[in-house]
């Protein structure tokens, strides 16, 4: 078995890295059915714009590019064109930052780049690319070939000091994005769906007055759409893109990060059907949890529930405002029109949250069994802080400070989560004002977590529900505190240890499709289904076999306070996945990757 696996792995390496353009194209991440590249183009003469024609050895199923625009010129060739910030290049420079994801059918050989014409000139080491042929005599890849995480080197540098990066953050970020792709609801774009077992779903999602509520993300292993935890997750991910863009760009994942955010914010804008009306849930929890199968095949009723002036939800409206304000910053330099739309809706939702105060889980009692809110004061301060950061309007800052005092947000919270934003408010106000009171509050929080006794194997254990989620969220807060020069080495060491616990420090990975002995039976309905026409139902749920589909990048709930974990689909406490589970985890990865790329970890 080992010899067979090694044979296919060797074939895979030859296909993705044995082409004539390896002097320009380097593979930074790979998996069964796709790979990520970075391009480095030497500039011979000064230019003011460029076009790059990339020809592959065989047809791709999907192609995603960043730091460039792309168009398909024939079945094998894509034309990349410069964007406004990288068209001008001086002689002797190297054009970097441009890269792409190439996707292909796993039963066919992996395509290689056969030629690259840069402004009409071949720049590959093989000056006669037309003589290069794909290796058609080799067997195609088996569909069971595992992603080659072991063949991808972690970022290493020779400058700076810090801690070893024993795991490949770039790969983990890329695969976290694949998890979010797998969670998408609605009509999926043909040219942007790297998950082969996912198709259009929940196309009849409608509000009580017929409003279009298609799109968004399914919350977890089920098919509910829940606005409050999703908005929290998107705020955190947008925050990481705003503050650690290098973590994404150096991983070739900046465009995917923006796409992740936009898929959610498009939905939030739809769900905000009028100034004081916001839908916060689609689907009935009982009906949804009584169904196990593909989201594409759901037939149950999916009612929708909203908050309004008479049934307020300052927490839901405030968190959604925070997500949209943070998103407006993500898109400000790349899509000013969309950025302005996000900011307009953020202002409206904040005004709604502030004027009509109440807990959303009282106005939407159907959600109380899943994501009940403990209060809304933290979301009011959180959204006001984000709006000040996005607009520089001092009125929002004054509101944030007032709410901070009114609701006692200086108190040391136990966690940072979809329900508790206190620690996030402390960090954000420290960033915005530089005032000692906020920095001290952040220091108290992170010092308490650094010094809190850990599990025998080193996990900061907060709660059995999403134990890895809680540790990752706190890691991100303390990485943010380090950026404020508050105990930077201590907090970065602490954060890295928590993320490395998830990536494999206990001897196994807790991230599906990543590292050593990852989970293979996550509590996740769609990935438990074999390809059609095979049925998928409760007998599938009970099967002892691994999920037929690999849910790449999903962080499972995690072990208990004694590090006990069993990879069991039936255990929805330890083995379910969720959009908010990956948020702080991905954000922390981006921060660590940014530090590593700068040489602070070597």
UniProtKB/TrEMBL annotation:
**From its record, what is one biological process in GO terms?**
cellulose catabolic process
EC top class named in words: hydrolase
Record field: catalytic activity: Endohydrolysis of (1->4)-beta-D-glucosidic linkages in cellulose, lichenin and cereal beta-D-glucans
Q: Which PROSITE patterns match?
A: GH9_2, GH9_3
SUPFAM superfamilies the record matches: Carbohydrate-binding domain, Six-hairpin glycosidases
Task: State if Signal is listed as a keyword.
Answer: yes
Q: Which family does it belong to?
A: Belongs to the glycosyl hydrolase 9 (cellulase E) family.
- Enumerate the Pfam families for this protein: CBM_2, Glyco_hydro_9
- Name the chain's protein: Endoglucanase
Q: Where is the active site?
A: 523, 567, 576
MF terms from GO for this chain are:
cellulase activity; polysaccharide binding
Q: Which UniProt keywords apply?
A: Carbohydrate metabolism, Cellulose degradation, Glycosidase, Hydrolase, Polysaccharide degradation, Signal
CBM2 domain location is: 21-116
Which EC number(s) does the record attach to this protein? 3.2.1.4
Record's signal peptide: 1-18
Does the keyword field hold Metal-binding? Answer: no
């Amino acid at each position: 078995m080992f010899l067979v696996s090694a044979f296919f792995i060797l074939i895979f390496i030859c296909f993705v890295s044995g082409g004539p353009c390896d002097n320009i194209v380097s593979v930074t991440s790979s998996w069964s059915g796709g790979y990520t590249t970075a391009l480095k183009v030497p500039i011979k003469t000064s230019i003011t714009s460029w076009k790059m024609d990339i020809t592959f050895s065989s047809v791709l199923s999907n192609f995603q590019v960043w730091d460039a625009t792309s168009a398909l010129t024939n079945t094998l060739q894509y034309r990349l064109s410069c964007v406004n910030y990288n068209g001008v290049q001086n002689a002797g420079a190297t054009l970097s930052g441009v890269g792409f994801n190439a996707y292909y059918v796993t039963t066919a050989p992996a395509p290689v780049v056969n030629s690259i014409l840069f402004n009409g000139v071949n720049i590959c080491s093989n000056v006669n690319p037309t003589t290069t042929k794909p290796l058609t005599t080799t067997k195609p890849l088996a569909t069971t070939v595992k992603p080659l995480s072991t063949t991808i080197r972690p970022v290493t540098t020779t400058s700076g000091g810090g801690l070893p990066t024993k795991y490949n953050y770039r790969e983990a970020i890329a695969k976290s994005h694949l998890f979010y792709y797998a969670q998408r609801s609605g009509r999926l774009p043909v040219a942007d769906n790297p998950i082969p077992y996912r198709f259009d779903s929940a196309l009849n999602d409608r509000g009580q007055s017929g409003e279009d509520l298609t799109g968004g993300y399914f919350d977890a292993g089920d098919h509910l759409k829940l606005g409050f935890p999703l908005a929290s997750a998107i705020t955190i991910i947008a925050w990481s893109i705003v503050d650690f863009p290098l973590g994404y760009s150096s991983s070739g994942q900046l465009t995917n990060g923006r796409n992740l955010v936009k898929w959610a914010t498009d939905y939030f804008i739809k769900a905000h059907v009028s100034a004081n009306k916001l839908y916060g849930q689609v689907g009935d929890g009982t009906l949804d949890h009584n169904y196990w199968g593909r989201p594409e095949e759901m037939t149950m009723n999916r009612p929708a529930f909203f908050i309004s002036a008479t049934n307020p939800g300052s927490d839901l409206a405030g968190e959604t405002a925070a997500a949209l304000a943070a998103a407006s910053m993500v898109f400000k330099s790349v899509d000013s029109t969309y950025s302005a739309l996000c900011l307009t809706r953020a202002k409206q939702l904040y005004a709604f949250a502030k004027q009509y105060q109440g807990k959303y889980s009282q106005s939407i009692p159907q959600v109380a069994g899943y994501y009940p809110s403990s209060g809304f004061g933290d979301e009011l301060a959180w959204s006001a802080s984000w709006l000040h950061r996005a607009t520089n309007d001092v009125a929002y800052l004054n509101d944030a400070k007032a709410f901070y005092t009114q609701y006692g947000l200086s108190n040391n919270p136990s966690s940072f989560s979809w329900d508790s934003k206190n620690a996030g408010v402390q960090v954000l106000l420290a960033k915005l004002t530089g005032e000692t009171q906020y920095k001290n509050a952040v220091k108290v929080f992170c010092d308490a977590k650094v010094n809190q006794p850990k599990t025998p194997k080193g996990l900061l254990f907060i709660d059995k529900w999403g134990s890895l989620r809680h540790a990752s969220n706190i890691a991100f807060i303390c990485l943010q505190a380090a950026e404020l020069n508050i105990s930077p080495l201590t907090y970065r060491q602490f954060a890295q240890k928590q993320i490395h616990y998830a990536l494999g420090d206990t001897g196994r990975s807790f991230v599906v499709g990543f590292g050593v002995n990852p989970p293979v039976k996550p509590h996740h309905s769609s990935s438990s289904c074999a390809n059609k026409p095979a049925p998928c139902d409760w007998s599938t749920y009970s099967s002892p076999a691994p999920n037929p589909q690999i849910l790449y990048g999903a962080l499972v709930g995690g072990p208990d306070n004694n590090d006990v974990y069993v990879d069991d689909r039936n255990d929805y406490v330890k083995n379910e996945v969720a959009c908010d589970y990956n948020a702080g985890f991905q954000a922390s990865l981006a921060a660590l990757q940014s530090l590593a790329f700068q040489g602070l970890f070597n």
